[in-house]
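Predict the holo structure. Ligand: magnesium ion.
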Amino acid sequence: MNLLRPADLIDHVQQITPEFLAARGLRGLLLDLDNTLIPYRSYQENTEVVRWAHDLQDAGIRLYLLSNATGKRADFWLSRLAFAGVGMAGKPHPRAFQRGARELGLPPEQVGMVGDQVFTDVLGGNLAGLHTILVRPLADNGLPHTRAARLLERQVLGRYGHRWPH
Ligand SMILES: [Mg+2]
């Protein structure tokens, strides 16, 4: 098994619809926050993402935020997104993802992990037996270690024949 390989590669979370999930046998999602739902560091309201999350929940999809951001930042967004979750989740440790799946009340094979980082979201999600969905990062956070990780990510994805269209 290729632990760094995402099951799906998408441009933005709004591409995930109830039909997309049904086709993959998924009933719930663990969602990364920074650069997946909201640009890194942003506190700007994003009605599109909030509406997308509401629509999925209306369709019976269970959502849970699994973020490594500070508890304070995670709480700010949780109050707006209107679903449960945690900050300081401890990704990529598989235990964080297993706990998330338990919170959703679903077996791992029915849970999608949606995130923008190969070495955090995809690696940990795959180790926990989840269906991993890599989303193109919303913004460049400018941190040197992230820039290095992005370079490695491109190489890993290139090896699987994946390339972001730009
Ligand atoms: Mg992220």
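Residues 32, 34-36, 115-117 surround magnesium ion (CB under 6 Å). The helical segments are 18-23, 47-58, 71-81, 94-104, 118-127, 144-159.
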